[in-house]
Structures are given as C-alpha cells and as structure tokens.
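Researcher: Good morning. I'm working through a list of sequences from a screen, and I'd like to move beyond sequence-only analysis. For each chain I'm collecting a predicted structure so we can compare shapes side by side. This is the next one on the list. No need for commentary yet; just the structure.
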Amino acid sequence: MDERTRDPLPIRAEDINPRYNWGRALPALGIMGVDFEERVDYRRMHRYRLGRAKQVLEKSECGALLVFDVNNIRYLTSTKIGEWERDKICRWALLTRDNEPILWDFGSAAVHHRLYAPWLKPENCKAGLLGLRGTVQPSFGLMAKHAKEIFGLLKDAGVEKMPVGVDIIEPAMMFELQKAGMKIVDGQQIMLEAREIKSADEIALLNRAAAMVDGAYHMISEELKPGVRENDIVAKVNEFLYRHGSDDVEAVNAISGERCNPHPHNFSDRMIRPGDQAFFDILQSFMGYRTCYYRTFNVGRATPAQHDAYKKAREWLDRAIELIKPGVMTDEVARAWPKAQEFGFPDELSAFGLQFGHGLGLALHERPIISRVVSLEHPTEIREGMVFALETYCPATDGFSGARIEEEMVVTDKGCRVISLFPAEELPISHRY
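Model: Good morning. Structure tokens for this chain:
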C-alpha cells in the first residue's frame, strides 16, 4: 500500500459544516457502495466527526480528551471491534488539540487497524490493556504504565498543564492518571456537545436504521396473534434486523396485556391473547447509529378504553411534534405533555421516560433530553441537524392496558421530518375479528 494513503485525512472547514438538502427526501439506500450514485461517504463522515470534536475541544478548558466510552471512541477514530466491547472498558483513545487521535485497542485489533484503517496513523494504533472492569488487578501495574504513557503524550503535545476531559473510567485508572500529574475533568459534556449536530451522512445512517425498524414492525403486525409469546416476537425481530444489516440489536421491549400498566421496560414469556393491547420498542443500530421506536397494537379487537388511551398518547405526541423547529426551547415541548399526576403517577421522577424526548446517534440517549424532570428549569435550544425521538405513554382506564407511541425526527431548517414511518396515526389492530 502506498504510504501516502496512511496519512490522516485533512479536516477542511466544509467538513465541519453539514451540507443538508432539505428539499429532497432523506435517503434510505442500501448498504452496498455503488459507482452510480452517492451514498454515505464514510471518510467524509470521519472528517466531520473529528472536526466537530476538535472544534468543541478548542473552546473548552481542556487540552485533551481521553475517552473510554465506545461511542466516543467510534466518533473520534471510526473504529469498532464488536458489540461485546460495550461494557468491558477495554479500549480508549486520546485526542489532543493539534494532533490526530491515538487509539489503544484490544490485542490484535490494533494490528488490524494498521492494515485496514488508513485514516489513522499506523503508529497511533496501539495495543493496550487496563483492568477489564477490575478483573486485572490495579496492583499489577498496567494502569500505572499506561497513565505514564498518556502523560508523556500530553507533554509531547504541549498540553500537560491543561485539564484532561474524561468520559467514563474505572476509579483505579483515574487515580493513576492523577498520580501521573493529570487534572481530570468531565469530558463527556464536551463529546456530547460535539455529537449533538449530525452531518448529512449521519442522518442518512439514522434514516436507514429507522427504515429497518419499519420493516420489523410490518413483520410484527403479521406475527402478532393469540398463542404467540412476547419472547417469540423478540426472537423474530432480532433475526429480521440482523439479516438486514444491524450491527447491534440492543433491546426489544415487548409488553402485552396486564403488563402494559405500569410500563416495565422489558419482555417476558407471556402469551398473547385476544383483545390484548401490546406495545414494542426496538432499539438497534446500523453502522453504529441507533433507533428508539415504539409502536402499539391490539390483537383482534380493542375496547373503548384501549382506543381512548391510544388516542390520548397520539394527541400528546402530535402536540409536541408540532412545536419542533430550530430555536424552540425544550421547556416549550415538555409543557405540551401532561403532568405526572394527570396520568396516574405521584411525581415527575416516577414518570420519567414516559413523556420523553432524547437525542439519537451513536448512543441511544444523546442531546437534547426533553422531560418535565429537567427541561422546565434547564431548557436548551433545539437546533437544525439534531436527530431525536419523542415518546408518549397513556395508561388505559381499565387499569391494566396502556398505549405507547414514539416517533423519530430530524430537525430541518424550518421544522422537522419524521423518519419512523410505520403507520401509527390510529390504533393498529392485527388479525381483526
């Protein structure tokens, strides 16, 4: 391979500014690269993400970001080694103000990156090992070794006297970084600020991920019938999504019948029965970009109480969607939803996540967060290029049923565009009797 291809891709001013074309439909193209039309440009996306991070780092107090959160590692380095990494704290990356990211990876993955990730400098792809959540004892010295190595790199970059922003970390590793001379501050806020505005390429991936869930819900509508269990639906959705290119089916919540109220946020082996109300949440990712997408169904028939619950949940959701446009503050959206006591909860914390908005990206929960718990006193501005989900829940007056609906949307220059397209204007009834 020509060594010139190993140089990092230069970041240009235009790479940091998204190029949206809101006059056209958002693309939901296939996963294959082709020569006859432009699809996602992954190297352009890499330059955008790295440029955003450097831009936000520059205006912060920090001289460097040291990230252990796998979503932040992917954002900075465009690398991923498997979903099993998510809870291991086994990889990390360092970004200083004027240098390219340095990545420490799990064993042979570092060697793989030197061969197949030419946007990273080969010498910046290192093997490393910390504690695997404490399994390797800190007394063995690996953390101290890497802490000294990181401090040396900060000195080389001339930022050793500035704070280092860290996102998540094992306490023992933080102590070693402090012993080595580093002042540790919250770096997650810096990374979340960088990640909140999506590029056109990121939006295309989020839209493709939503399209996959559209298909999964069509399958659910055909499979949902008496005798099927909640976990049967979960299994079928997992198979459908992985066959269509998902890189992580994070969770499929399947809730039916008397389990609908209160919402348990899980699934069981409960068998579906005629007249059940059932709702589902599909959380999965395509090329790292995630979905959070609820739909409610009834099986065979629906009672007036079930219809009424669905109608109210839809009205609350539509009221919020109408408000979404650049410049609107999140408290305005939160006020469109009922207070906790109005739908049967003692306080807002007990109802948190039921009338809710949250950003989507490489993580399930990014900015903005919209909730009566936080938004009324700490409003933030909705901005063009944000992608987030709004979700509502209404318990039925029968005491056990409940409706849950969620829409994903992209904030455009004038309003928003919904990208979760499986029909939900009225209560869907599968296998109607």
